[in-house]
Amino acid sequence: MSTLDALVQIIANGVKDIQSKSAERGMPYPTPDTPLSPESEKLQSDLATDAAPVIAAAWQLIATLKRPHIYFLELALSSFLSGSISVAEAAYVPDVLREAGTKGLHVNEIAAVRNVDAGKLGRILRHLTSWHIFEEVAPDVFRNNRISSALCTGKPVQEMLESPIDRWDDTNGVAALVSLTGDFNQRGNAFLAEHLLDPATGHSQEPNEAAWQRAMRTNLVSFEWMELPEHALELRKFSIGMRATTSPDSDIIATRGFEWESLPSGNLVIDVGGGVGSLAMALAKAHKHLRYVVQDRHAVAKEGERLWKATVPGFVENCIPIKDADVFILRHILHNWSDKYASKILSRLRDAAQPATKLVVMDNIVDYMCRDSGAVAEITGAARSQAPEPLLPYADSAAGSIYSLDICMMCCANCQERTLGHFVELLKSTGWKLERVCRFESPLSQQLICSPL
Predict the structure, then answer these.
(1) pLDDT for 338-381, tens place per residue?
(2) 376 near 421, Cβ under 8 Å?
(3) Half-sphere exposure (Cβ direction) of 308: Cα atoms closer than 13 Å
(4) Looking at beta carbons, which pairs linking 366-369 to residues 24 or more positions away fall under 8 Å?
(5) Of 42-51, 175-184, 425-434, 440-449, which one has max mean pLDDT?
(6) Which residues touch 196 (CB under 8 Å, ≥6 apart)?
């Protein structure tokens, strides 16, 4: 069987299987025309594993059918997609169209809300529509579809206009995260080649010597930059955007993976660099017998205290000196630091650990793009089932966001996502042993359960 035939067969069989499983649940599999709803989102989430090889085959089929120079050119030009998404979010387009309803709205009226040039905004929305984000129902008349609806905050547009900095409050954080990624993280991307080829910066592991600093003409680490008074919007956006990485599946994180329920009553769980406490909040609701401390920078901690008092009043108490931690959590922390600084963090935690202390690292694991994972495959939970040839080894890695996020982290702070082999070496060098890996379906992070060496 030829590669083309194999790819087409994977797509055809996979779609048929997805449709059958959807029918068993009493609803058709959603398309871009299907309204966004909790039920349809759950269906897609439940069938994500089934959809992964179909998506992988579709991407590989595109790469196979297109001429190489056309394929390269289109990928290079796709970098402008992020800018277009940023404009749509900043102009409140998803919520403006939500209020307009299914009939849609002329771009002149959409643009008037934020005083944007209508001709330019129309071109941007048409660009997004070509990627199945929004729908053009008549010349220059646009409406939301399922995908663009995911950017809605659900708030009245007038309220957003009156207080732009509060527009992401009490949302799932998706719009804030998308805005952060497009408007903040991509700035360094334009300077990446220049930065890496510069002998003065290309080999740096310093968090304030990344391509983003070159783009922004600053020597501040991105976190310090966001804490300046004039960047309050970016700080709020970051704090709420991080909620999107936990909130949709907080019940899964709190009830699967590490055995939180087996910890003795009163055990102390330290969420190191825990942001506004989204993860700790999910754990506290499910496991009330444990004690929790969230540690982060002062500005972020203040925002977290405000969120907790509004969401779960009565949980927040004054901090006390931390002694005898039973579990350390590092969720999306190590990927914020180069090996030089990640080693310092892990070493400090090792110095503070008791013999029975556990370290739970919640982070992405970058899969190798070969079928032999080496010795790390022997670690409990490390091995993953592989996709059939001619697909890449892991179906959910095809054009996967983790690889893009890895480059994003490189641009922002000289940090990175890591392979499992890299994690093993880093942990071992700082006095930790990786005991096992608790696997979760993408986009949830994996859990690396570690103990002191």
Answers:
(1) 999 999 999 999 999 999 999 999 999 999 989 888 888 889 99
(2) yes
(3) 25
(4) 366/402, 366/403, 366/406, 366/417, 366/418, 366/419, 367/393, 367/394, 367/397, 367/402, 367/419, 368/393, 368/419, 369/393, 369/397
(5) 425-434
(6) 202, 211
Which of 122, 178, 171, 117 is CA-nearest to residue 147?
178
Buried b or exposed e, range 358-382, using 16+ CB within 10 angstroms? bbbbbbbbbbeeeeebeebeebebb
Residue 239 to residue 362: CA distance in whole angstroms? 18
Q: Are residues 403 and 306 in the same domain?
A: yes
Q: What is the C-alpha to C-alpha distance for residues 315 and 292, in angstroms, rounded to an integer?
A: 10
User: Does residue 57 share a domain with residue 154?
Assistant: no
Does the annotation mark 287 as catalytic?
no
The one catalytic residue in 195, 287, 332, 335 is 335
> Among the three residues 244, 270, 288, which one is the final residue of a domain in this structure?
244
Same domain, 192 and 71: no
**Residues 202 and 286 placed together within one structural domain of the fold:** no
In the chain, pLDDT over 90 holds for what percent of residues?
Answer: 67
Do residues 284 and 307 make contact, with C-beta atoms less than 8 angstroms apart? no
Please check whether residue 233 is in contact with residue 163, taking contact to mean a CB–CB distance below 8 angstroms.
no
450 pairs with which residues across the strands? 359, 434
Using alpha carbons only, how large is the chain's radius of gyration in Å? 23
| Maximum Cα–Cα distance across the chain | 68
Residue 185 has pLDDT above 90, yes or no: no
Residue identified by tokens 């998803």 is: 94
The alpha carbon of residue 37 and the mean position of all alpha carbons in its chain are separated, in whole angstroms, by 21
146 and 10 assigned to the same domain:
no
Last residue of a domain, one of 76, 106, 137: 76
Beta carbons of 14 and 53 less than 8 angstroms apart: yes
The one-letter code for the residue type at 170 is: D
Contacts (Cβ under 8 Å, ≥6 apart) of 220: 208, 213, 228
pLDDT in tens, 271-330: 988 876 778 888 988 999 999 988 877 666 666 566 555 555 555 554 444 667 899 999
Domain housing 437? 248-452
